[in-house]
Specification:
The chain has helices at about 15-30, 45-50, 60-70, 90-110, 130-135, 145-155, 190-205, 220-230, 240-255, 265-270, 285-295, 305-320, 320-345, and strands at about 5-10, 35-40, 55-60, 75-80, 85, 115-120, 140-145, 155-160, 180, 210, 230-235, 255-260, 275-280, 300. The chain has about 350 residues and is α/β, with parallel strands linked by helices.
Length: about 350
């Protein structure tokens, strides 16, 4: 029996990564039934990036979407939460509490409530933990994307970030002579030793530096770094949509040997196209570590500001190709198992 699957996909609409993992989940769910997708104020280019089937019903009004959910037939209704980070703040908690009656309504109709590919924000301090546990426990099953999230609440399963699931993963034999740099615009600016280390490393290895942006707010930081390195830029022009920008950056990644970034989904997109990941942080953060620990890729981050140490760190990442590729394939295998399980639960 074909089902009605209700999914909210609101997120950071100026972020290619937010479209990537949402698109992946939606591609799984469309095998089960008709998608009823709440997009809120998302621009058309973001909705286009979700690659929704023609049968999908799109809602911009939350109450209209919830009304349709409330009147969806007995035995044919499921609710699947948006993948992504949970801020675990009071505002989000209140919204979660407002949704509880609708979740209970789905369960009374013998439907399922799932959370797939979610994570509590790394390094977060949680208030009202017992209430959060109660709210999350109302889901029939939770698939976290970090180990710490599961430890924080004590239940659920852990799977790799959905953006790792690229069945066509084939690193290929094309010459890789690009060093990609893509840094967050909301973190401290890289220092002079950081700049000098990347320059020296690129010269030694005969790499061409390319500056990439998957988030529009990173464009200014990218322009600054391009000026420091005299590098080619692939920043996100306002006239370019999510689909086009993802195509642009993935074409670059397929020619890239190593990517330096503190942006999680830059690293994941690049790694699934065969580039090797490296993280040089300008501010302490466990977000990337937490997500890469799930796929058992460790030791890819540095907080050093010593030029020689940074060059040595980057050199060490270059010899990890066999290990990294193996871990990516393992991650995709685990996600394939999760996909089959979720489809089975909802069918």
């Amino acid at each position: 029996m074909f089902k009605n699957i209700f999914v909210p996909v609101v997120g950071q609409f100026t972020n290619v990564g937010d479209a990537m993992h949402r698109r992946e989940l939606l591609s799984w769910l469309k095998e089960v039934g008709t998608l009823h997708v709440y997009v809120g104020s998302a621009p058309k280019v973001f909705v286009d990036a979700l690659d929704l089937p023609n049968t999908a019903k799109i809602y911009t009004n939350l109450f209209g979407w919830l009304w349709k959910l409330m009147w969806s037939p007995f035995g044919k209704t499921h609710f699947v939460f948006n993948p992504g980070e949970i801020t675990v703040g009071v505002k989000r908690l209140l919204f979660e509490c407002l949704l509880l009656p609708f979740e209970w309504g789905v369960k009374m109709k013998r439907g399922k409530v799932l959370r797939v590919g979610i994570a509590a924000v790394s390094n977060a301090v949680i208030n009202y933990r017992s209430l959060w546990r109660f709210v999350l426990k109302q889901s029939d099953k939770i698939y976290w994307r970090t180990n710490d999230s599961k430890k924080m609440f004590g239940f659920g399963e852990v799977i790799p970030d959905l953006a790792f699931f690229t069945p066509k993963f084939k690193p290929g034999t094309d010459k890789r002579n690009i060093l990609v740099v893509s840094m967050r615009g909301d973190r401290p600016e890289p220092g002079s030793n950081w700049i000098a280390a990347v320059k020296e490393f690129a010269i030694r290895k005969n790499f061409q530096i390319a500056i990439v942006s998957q988030v529009r707010m990173d464009n200014d930081r990218g322009s600054y770094l391009a000026e420091q390195f005299g590098a080619t830029t692939y920043l996100w022009d306002d006239k370019v949509g999510h689909v086009e920008q993802e195509k642009i950056v993935r074409e670059v990644y397929r020619k890239t040997q190593l990517v330096i970034s503190d942006r999680l989904h830059v690293l994941i997109a690049a790694i699934t196209d065969g580039a090797l990941p490296s993280v040089i942080l300008t501010r302490p953060s466990d977000k990337i570590k937490d997500h890469f620990d799930v796929v058992e890729i460790e030791g890819i981050s540095s907080m050093s500001d010593v030029e020689k140490d940074l060059v040595d760190f980057l050199n060490n990442q270059l010899v990890r190709e066999k290990e990294i590729y193996s871990k990516v394939r393992d991650a995709q295998y685990r996600l394939g198992i999760a996909k089959k399980e979720i489809i089975s639960i909802l069918s």
